[in-house]
Structures are given as structure tokens and as C-alpha cells.
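Subject: mismatched residue count in predicted assembly?

I count 720 residues in my input, but I want to confirm that the predicted structure covers every chain. Input:
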Amino acid sequence: MKRACTVVLAASALVLAACSSDLPTEPGAAQSQAQGESSAQSQFFDKAEYDRQLALRDATPTGPEDRPWEQALEPEMVDTSQYKKDGPYQVCFSNASVDNPWRQVGFKTMQAEADLHDDIAQFTVLDAEAKDDKQISDMASLVSQGCDALIVSPNTTATLTPAVEAACDSGIPVVVFDRGVNTECPVTFIHPIGGYAFGASAAEFLSDEVGEGGKVLGLRVLPGVDVLEHRWAAADRVFDERGVQVVGAEFTENDSATAKSIVSDYLQREGQIDGIWMDDGTAAVAVLEAFEDAGMEPPAISGEDQQQFLQKWKDEGLTALAPTYPTYQWRTPVIAALKILRGEEVPKEWILPQPVIDSSTLDNYLTAGMPPLHYGLCGCQEMPGYPQRWQ
Amino acid sequence: MSEATTTTSRRIKLADGTGPVLAVLAVLLIALAFVGPAYSEPSGYLALLKRAAPLMILAIGQYFVIVSGGFDLSVGSLVTAEVVIAARLLDGDEAATLWVIPLLLCTGALVGLVNGLITTRLLVPSFIVTLGMLLVLDGAVFLWTGGSPRGALTEAFRVVGREGFEVPLLGQLPWSVLVLAALVVAAVVFMRRGTGRMLVAIGDNETSVRLGGGKVERLRTLAFVLSGVSAAIAAILLGGFAGVSAQVGDGLEFRVITAVVLGGVVLGGGRGSVVAAMAGALTLEALFSLLNLLGVAGGLESAVQGVIIIAAVAYAAAGRISFRTRRST
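Triage response: the counts match. Full output below for your records.
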């Protein structure tokens, strides 16, 4: 979609003809939150939420220890007895899109979770293909199809809020996860701790590694998406406090070639870079290759739980850390929907733990034979059909 | 290499717009030497050429299409498709490299052939055909991979795009620069022969070529096939450079058209040299490197591309207007 738009824009420039085109919707991963005190560092910085997330990293979750997708941090339980009904159930899911590997792995995991439960007679999924208007009509259509519960992963926050409210008004329980909406009406909102915790964990690790005055390059995906902005806002703050020199913060648009070129340029400009901080780990391997190709030792690096990065980490004994935005969170909405339909309590805001992979836990998440873009924290290792279903 | 480019283009007659782009390129290369310490040695420029090689090769293919009066918007998605196909077929098996590379070249040629046949036989404007092809390839890649490429490129496959060999004095000479050099020579020779000249003539005045007995349809189809093959070669270099990615070709079609236009090749066809088109691609990469070294934010890249396209087309249009005025008086 974005490419089509680019081409239409390019085309219009080429023929010097006027053309009006909607701007592509950024996959906003927004959570509803009040504007807190703003920091000079970033308009996306909210001190109260930052402090809350950093504290949540050390909180002890409730729930089964070996099943983090069923755990919750500081849950406030809500009564769901009004939704109690007998099975089997039709559970419906309105998905924003499956347009990146993270969502791919998550969605496969979610389907596997639905298969695990005999009382789900039908798991109906509509994919909005990253279009707000399609998701609005998808949700209306699902509500009218007699779903017993509706799971929503909203494409954008503001535009989909009224649609979620409409679904709530129809009387069926609504479960929102991943990205949020500006309404309290869903029975539960499921998400990991958040972007501040992600960014701060990586930045603290790198600060320890490079020391005061060390040079760190920040590589970001794209501007304006709030969980991504939160990651950088937290990191920027940590680096500032610890006296780490940030030599630059560049956008890679998730393209390995762009990332590699940027890093090569910075290596020329700075001579040496001690640490690489990454927004998400997609381009981590290409970044490390830029150091290799320049004949330099790999830097301390923070990536993500993507297979190709974990593999390289293991093979080359990197100094690395992988904060995660776990894909196992896709299991939770299915579990939540069933709990609600059985009349069991669920947390109003279901905050999942967000593990950080370090060298000591690397082996738990690295599995030979998985595709390069697989995510290790899928929570799918014990599921039937693993690993073939995720390959 | 920049020197070589200059001398090659001096031997062939300097076409419209070749002079300005070479001047801009020279200024940028000198500026780079002041800004980046690495550019005080040949290896810095070789690294720049290595990075620019895929775009320069794409520019050769795009030049053939544009100079004969068409557009090829499908190259970016073709590059992505080729890299994704390569990763899936290779799947880490070194032995497979030998047959996958020819297969990729054939796929590129086939896509170009389809573009060319639909444009010339069904008379659909190339702009629309290739825009459609872009969407088809994009969609096909997405359907096939589900947004997450599978498999892995082999070390052998990546050698050409990533590695090089040591040369005394110069430092590491990347393989991609050798591939580029070979293609430059081939392209220049091709353009100096009858077929090449005929391509330019088609862009300038299709009817007169037709009346003169030229095979217009066949030649224009050939231009698209060459563009498809150049996309396949660029994909092999890009995949080698940075590894598997489903975003590798994003925006390349836009960037390569900017490069060709920057090289003074006139949109609509009929004017411009292939060397200048490649110089345009190198200029664009050098410009982005310079902006990056100066610490200018990445967002400026698109703006710069936009300004270049508008300015270059306006410059060409202004040239045409004064030409007409002179003739009428």
C-alpha cells in the first residue's frame, strides 16, 4: 500500500500533474494514555508512564511461571459473570494486518492457541490489511455474525475507538490487545509492559558496556509510531543520564541495505562506534556485517528476539542483549475470551511480562531450523505442530 | 572509477545534460574528501561505488526504457521478488547457487518481456503496465511469503555483492565494481551500435523510425527485457550486500528514475546518454552519503529526490522552449 502510494506520488511528480492521495496509515501501536508532563527530549515522553513501566520490569507477575502469556503484572481483576454462557463458542478476531514478520509469527501462534481449545467451535478471522475503513466494516460484520466474543487488534487508535465502542454496545465481550483504543469499554486490554521498558533495558545494558563517554549509534525504524517513539525516548534519557555520547539517531525504514549504508557512513565519520542501539532487531545482522566489512570488531548491540540475530549472537559470541515485545501475547486474547465466556475474572488491563534475553538465556530461545525472521518469544515451543507450523 | 567515467563519456560525444551531471558529481566527490576521512584514500571511493553499483546497474536498464519513450516502475518490486525467491530457493544450500543465479536472470528477463509485450502489442502505456506489474509482484511476494521471507542466502551467493579481492595500492576491489565496469562497457558498446542508436531514435520520433523500416515494437520490448535483467543483477548485488529482506526494493523505482533524470536523460525519450544516466545514479548516492556525513536527517532524502526530478524536468522543458523559439524566429 505504502509502495503504491509512493509510486503514485512519484508518478505525479514525473508528469507534473496534480494528484491527491491519502497518506499511508502508519501502523500506530498506540495505547490510550493521558498526556503527562512533557519532556524537552520528546513530545512522546510521559514521565509518569515511564516510571510506571520501569518499575513494572521488576514487579513479580501473578500466574503460572512457565506460561508467561497467562501471567499478569499488578492485575486489577474485573467480574465477567454477566458474559457467562455455555459452549461451544464462536470466537471472532478482527486483525489489523499480517504485514510484518512479527505479526505473522503472532498470528500463527494465535491460530495454534485457538486449535488447542475444544470449546472453540469456530475461530473466525478477518484481516483488515492495515486499512482503518476495512477494519471498521470487518468489526461490524463480525458482530452481526453471532460471535460470542470479539478480539480486536486495532489498526490505529483514534479512528477505531468508535468501532470498538459500537462492538461493546452490541453486548458481546470485547478483548483488545497489542495496540490500544481510547475507551474503557473492552472487558480487558492485553499488552506487554511497553516501549519505555524496551528502550530503557537496551540503553542501560549499552551504557554499562560502553561506559561514560562511549559512542552509541541509535537506529530507529520510522518516526511517529508511539511504541517506537517511547523506545527511543526512554533510551535517549538513559544515555543522557549515564553520560553516553549518542553520535546519531537515524531511521532505517526497516531496510537492511539502508541500515548497513548508514552504519558504514557513521563508521567513516566517527572512526569507531562502541555500541548500537536498535528500535527493533530486523536489521541487526546487516548492521553487524557493516562492522565486519570494515574490518572492525563487532560493537555491543541491542537487537530483538529474531532468529537470525540470535543465531549470529550465538555463533560469534557477541556482546548483545535482546529486549522483546513478545509474540506470545497473541495467545493471551484467546485465553482471555474463553475465561470471560466461562464467567471467570480477568485483569482489566492485562499487562504481560516482557522478558529480556541475555547471554545466559539465549539458548532457550534459539532453535535450529527456524526461519531467519522467526521470533523466539512466540511461546509456541510446546504447541502441537511446532516447529513445522512456524517454518 | 569517476575518472574512467569521465574519459569514457568524453570519447563518445557528450549528450545533452551529461556535462552538468559530471560537474555536480565531481563537486560531490571532492566535498566527500573534505568531510569523510575515509575518502582520502581510493578505498573510500571504491566502497561508495560498491554501494552505488546496484542503483547504477538499474539506471542502465531504466535508461534503455526511458530513452525509447517508456517507463519501468516495476524494477523495485522485481528486486524484492528476486531476493525473496533467491532466499527461498537457496535455503542455505551452497550447491544451489549455481542454478539459482541463472534462474533469477531469466525471471528478470521474463518480467521485462511481459512488460514489453503488453506495452507494444496491447498498446497499454508502459506507465500503467509497469505500475500494474509492480502491484502484481508486490502482491505475489506477499502472498508467497506472508510478509516474512523464508530461507536464507548462501555465502557463495553473497560473495559478489559483499566481498572483493585485495589489489595493491587500491585496497579491496569489490566484485560488484567489476560487474559494474563490465556492464558499463557493454552498455556503451551497445549504445554506439545500430540497435542502441535506433532505441534513441524511437524515443525521439517513433513514426520516422517506423517509416524507415525499423522494428519499433521489437526494440522497445528489448528495452524492457534489458531493464528486467538489470533489476535481476541489482537484486543479486543488493541481496549479497545486505541479506534477505522483504523491503530491499522499496522505493527503488523512484530512486532510479531520479538518477536517470539527474543524468539529463529526457523523460519521454530521445535524448540522453547511458553514461550520464549512470553518473546520475552515482551522483545521487554520493549526495546521500554526503548528507549523511554532514549529519543531515534522513527525511531530507525524499525531499532532495523530489526537487531533483522537478528541477531536471523543468530544465529540460526550458531547453525545449528556447529551442522552439529559436527555430520559429
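The longest helix of chain A spans residues 101-116. Marking this ticket as 'not a bug'.
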